[in-house]
């Protein structure tokens, strides 16, 4: 009978450890996804600003803007 209780306790401990590991991995994944999203947003913003500066630099005063780069 005592081996049954020790086996049950062991299973509970394994389940608890597995749950903690799952929560930790989920938290790490969420942090990484947030980092990647912020980084991507920053890169997109820099690209947008650079494109806008190039358009202003190359704008020849004609409407509509037929050629951006010439």
**What are the low-pLDDT stretches, counting only 5+ consecutive residues below 50?**
none
**How much of the residues is beta strand, in percent?**
under 5%
**Overall pLDDT confidence:** 86
Binned, the helix content reads over 70%
C-alpha geometry: rod-shaped
Write down how many β-strands occur, each being a DSSP E stretch of 2 or more residues.
Answer: 0
Query: How would you sum up the major sheet?
Result: none
- Derived from helix and strand composition plus strand pairing, the structural class reads mainly alpha
Keywords:
single chain; 70 residues; mainly alpha; 81% helix; rod-shaped; coiled coil; signal
Describe this structure in words.
With 70 residues, the chain is an all-alpha fold. It has one domain. 81% of the residues lie in helices and 0% in strands. The chain has one helix and no strands. The chain is rod-shaped and about 90 Å long. Its main location: secreted. Keywords: Coiled coil, Extracellular matrix, Secreted, Signal, Sulfation. It holds the Pfam family UCMA. It comes from Ilyodon furcidens. May be involved in the negative control of osteogenic differentiation of osteochondrogenic precursor cells in peripheral zones of fetal cartilage and at the cartilage-bone interface.
């Amino acid at each position: 009978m005592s081996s049954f209780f020790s086996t049950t306790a062991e299973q509970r401990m394994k389940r608890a450890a597995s749950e903690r590991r799952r929560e930790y991995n989920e938290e790490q994944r969420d942090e990484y996804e947030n980092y990647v999203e912020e980084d991507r947003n920053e890169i997109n913003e820099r690209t947008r600003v650079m494109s806008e500066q190039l358009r202003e630099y190359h704008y020849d005063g004609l409407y509509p803007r037929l050629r951006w780069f010439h």
